Amino acid sequence: MSFKMHIPFLSRLRKTPPAFDHENFIRLLHYYKEGRTTREEDRYIRAELQRNSDACMLMEDFRDTYGIDPILGRKRNRLAMASIAVIAILCAAGLLFAVGKNYRIVPIEQQNYHFRYKTLQELSGIIAREYRVKVIFDTPESASYHYTGMLDMNRPLSAFLEDVRNVSQVEYYYDVEGNLHFR
Q: Any idea where the Protein FecR C-terminal domain is (predicted)?
């Protein structure tokens, strides 16, 4: 003997969304950063950020790890960068207020500089600023060499230069004035 119970409002209840998949969300953030997501995936990311606290925490970790906000649109990104630059100039204590939903204090000086497919010409400004050495390119080929990696400010510059030399034909030397030359 079995009996059925009829609940009149059960059909009007919202269906429970599927469980939140942390790995899939992080994978989508990486794809979004690279510009490889569809519109539906973009909508999913935005919806999860609005309704799911786990997604917000993962997004904060993603921002802290990669130093970027992949969800900002182009116009907001330009405005945020201008605001950050203005605050960085005005703040003499070495602290920076990050523009976002919640204001946070972040140190201006990062210990690591992660870069992807940058030329040595582009990296020369960072090397000159951080290590206080003038960078000179003897050949145009050495200036246009592309490199992906990390510049760790806690390690000596020679360690980074050895990494560059190991993966390319670019050689380096210092002249008598202490300038760094790439050839």
A: 113-179
pLDDT digits over 100-120, tens only? 444 444 444 557 777 788 888
Provide φ and ψ at 139, rounded to 5°.
-130, 150
- 7 membership: H or E segment, kind and range: none
Spatial contact of 89 and 99, defined as CB atoms under 8 Å apart: no
Element (H or E) spanning 147, and its range? strand 146-152
Structure tokens at 9: 């409002």
Q: Which amino acid is at 138?
A: D
Helix (H), strand (E) counts: the chain: 7, 7
Q: Rounded to 5 degrees, what are φ and ψ at 98?
A: -80, 135
In whole angstroms, give the CA distance from residue 126 to residue 91.
21
Span 32-75, pLDDT tens digits: 887 788 888 888 988 888 888 888 888 888 887 776 655 544 33
Reported residue count of the chain is 183
Angle at 96 between CA 106 and CA 149, to 5 degrees: 60
DSSP track, 9-33: TGGGSPPPPPPP-HHHHHHHHHHHH
